[in-house]
Design a protein that fits this description.
This protein has seven helices and 17 strands. By secondary structure, the protein is of the alpha/beta class. It folds into two domains: 181 residues, no CATH class; 233 residues, Alpha/Beta hydrolase fold, catalytic domain (Rossmann fold, 3-Layer(aba) Sandwich), CATH 3.40.50.1820. A six-stranded parallel β-sheet has the order 3-2-4-5-6-9, with helices on both faces. Strands 1, 10, 13, 16 and 17 form a five-stranded antiparallel β-sheet that branches. The termini are far apart.
């Protein structure tokens, strides 16, 4: 891998004025001071449904159950859905079984779902189709731990070699019918795959050390329609990246299988489930993106592509949004023929400001170094990172955050204001 010179992408400053901007470095923002915001309102435990991953069982949740019970959950409130990963298993049928399980066991009016890996696809498929009975609107929180929510690039390679698990693997091929159904009819949707006015608050967590799913890390890009996406992160969700440099998780960096049992991940899950929104409604605007390091396979500046967006998951507030400030597909060119576009893609931008409910705004960045359509090479991933602005820990105003991947990093400059 070779070093690359710095590149800056300037973003539009106002809605309806997405004109080409000269790329200039942005001054480093002053450090933010924590806001004196009230803590979340504890709603007390609701019933929770735990959905394990492929080639696993409900025992994967043993330590999570211990954590839940230590915070006030009772055995009667914790429901572990077990399903076989046998030759005949497909997401559609397993989702129907999940619906039957919920009908039988979940008696509370509202409940939460926490899913790991394949369980994320199964549970969201059920929510999208309301298999069994229409209770999808009763889900307050849906939390995905390393879910293949946009599939996995390696799934199609396995084919019959996957043996007894092959049918599930077909459903994880990017763009499969199961993927499209779970994502509300689209393989992906830049305005949000979770439904703009869904009553559910969606949260995803992925790890920078996710290293063993189909022998291809889940944090490398999934390529669809010349677009590279992170598999787990969703538009209309708050997306967290658990890495060994993220202080939000105290330096944790669990493997794929280790996500349900990681203490920092468990704490974030509990925090998410026991809050009824953290307060105010804010708006975030992205100002610019500065490439700090890009050590991918190629060393030219015109072959990077990907996206930078702001996401919000407001639950009952109705702001399950994704606002793309910059996007470049593979082989896209500007008027001068360069692939690296120095202006945002207006067709995917809702306006200068993104509304963020429940006191949180999320920034997601995926920037890939093309090297001949070998999209699953780890060293293609210049940036795959997320940053969550949370009113409990940051103040409104200008700020910046560093997001990174396996072969580079960037600084994203933003501004936050009270709506």
């Amino acid at each position: 891998m070779r070093s690359r010179s710095l590149v800056v992408v300037a973003l539009a400053a106002a809605a309806g004025s997405l004109a080409a901007a000269t790329a200039v470095p942005h001054a480093v923002a002053a450090p933010e001071s924590p806001a004196a915001a009230a803590g979340p309102t504890a709603a007390g435990p609701r019933d929770i449904v735990l959905v394990h991953g492929i080639n696993d069982s409900s025992s994967a949740w043993n330590s999570m159950v211990v954590k839940l019970k230590s915070t006030g959950y009772t055995d009667a409130q914790i429901h572990r859905f077990d399903y076989p990963s046998d030759h005949g298993s497909r997401v559609q049928g397993t989702a129907a079984d999940l619906g039957t399980f919920i009908d039988k066991n979940v008696k509370s009016a509202k409940f939460d779902i926490v899913a790991h890996s394949m369980g994320s696809l199964i549970s969201r498929y059920w929510m999208a189709t309301a298999s069994g009975s229409y209770r999808a609107g009763d889900v307050v929180n849906w939390v995905s731990l390393s879910g293949p929510n946009h599939g996995n690039q390696a799934a199609g390679w396995w084919g019959d070699a996957a043996g007894v698990y092959k049918n599930f693997y077909w459903d994880v091929i990017p763009g499969s019918d199961a993927q499209r159904t779970a994502n509300n009819g689209d393989s992906y949707n830049w305005r949000g795959e979770t439904g703009e006015h869904s009553p559910t608050q969606f949260t995803t967590l992925r790890s920078g050390c996710d290293d063993s799913w189909f022998d291809v890390p889940l944090h490398v890009p999934v390529q669809l329609d010349k677009t590279s996406l992170d598999s787990t992160s969703l538009g209309g969700a708050i997306n967290y990246k658990v890495t060994n440099t993220d202080n939000t998780f105290g330096g944790a960096c669990p493997t794929h299988a280790g996500m349900p049992g990681d203490p920092a991940v468990q704490q974030k899950v509990v925090d998410t489930l026991t809050e009824e929104g953290v307060g105010g409604v804010y708006e975030m605007k992205l100002e610019s993106v500065e490439m700090l390091e890009a050590n991918g396979d190629d060393n030219t500046n015109d072959d990077l592509f990907g996206y930078v967006r702001v996401t919000s998951s407001g639950g009952n507030n109705g702001w399950n949004l994704s606002n793309v400030y910059w996007r470049n597909d593979y082989d896209d060119t500007d008027s001068s023929g360069h692939r690296w576009l120095n202006v945002p893609n207006s067709s995917f931008n809702r306006g200068a400001w993104t509304t963020c409910g429940n006191g949180r705004c999320g920034i997601d960045a995926m920037i890939v170094d093309e090297d001949g359509h070998t999209y699953v090479d780890p060293d293609d991933v210049v940036v795959n990172g997320s940053y969550v602005w949370d009113q409990r820990h940051q103040s409104a105003g200008p700020g910046s955050a560093v997001v990174q991947g396996l072969a580079g990093k960037a600084r994203v400059y933003y501004n936050v204001r009270v709506r």
